[in-house]
Predict the structure.
Amino acid sequence: MEREVVAMTASMLGGGARGATSVCGCVTSGGTESILTALRTTRDFMRSTRGIWDAEIVVAESAHAAVYKAASYFNLRLVRVPVDKLTLQMDVLATRRAVTRNTVLIYASAPGFPHGVVDDVQALAEVAQSAGCGLHVDACLGGFVLPFAKKAGWRHGVGLGRPFDFSVAGVTSMSVDTHKYGLAQKGSSVLLYANPELRRAQYTAVTEWSGGLYISPSAAGSRPGGLIAQTWASLVHMGESGFVAAAQRVLEAADTLAAGVRTIPGLQVLGQHTMVVAFRSQEPGVNIFQVNDELTSRGWHLNALQRPAALHFCVTPANSDAVPALLRELRAAVDAVRAAKGKAAPGGMAPVYGLAGGLPDRGAVGDLLKGVQDIMLDG
């Protein structure tokens, strides 16, 4: 079942019989494990093939937070580059300048979590090939939507009309979450590699243990076979036609949401949206975090972003029908905040976001987050 899940996923993303037949992979417990594993595997592969011990990873400031966890776990140096101010894509020129002899990987997103923007994978792949380093494409969010967008009749160009998968020479690994738009149960993702040689660097082989010879493909020792079976069942049940229909539903609803946000005075849609629509306030009297508090009080839960301060809504097959109602509530929330003239609602999170965004000491913000986590774990 794992082999078939990997094969089905690879066939959507430039691998399989009709693409790069060398594409291979494994099933993981989620996007974070896929990302952690891809970065650690590339580090070890480049260490053994190029002798790089002080590994650097070039990431955009919009890259998923899992890259910071990977850096902490595996002693990787993160080199952050900005995003283009207009498109919010990873800045290709800045990436080219950031690459050094110690760069083992460039990390791209398709799309990125904050703004739903697909990076220019083709241009980044050219940089990676010139530098002789890897290129990981984080398609955790979009891996089961973007491949079907064209057949779904989506009128926008995905990633500005450029391919983003193994059809692009230079892409060495991809992470794709089956438990997101693959509609499988929480706790499953697929990690794909361009070839078996790279995947082999993921394994742990122990030859000198008194317990016998040991080989493990992942960080986890025991893995739940039930989740793999359920993932297999979901993909087989949906099939290509099911995913095309789901993509059409999601992308049409996202278009409706983006178009509706543009009609609300004071709001601006950020970047070229996919299934994620991000927007900010352009009106000084409308604090976007206060808008979020107002929406929360009305039963809506959006994701708060920073740098710039913004909100986003991720459209899924489960919530796509709610977009018209969300637009009505969003307009009402903006009007309510405007009428409040800067006065924050009691108990809201806007003051916390404002304080966190304004503190120059990011260590203090980190300590605040750890305190919140303590409360969540201990009650």
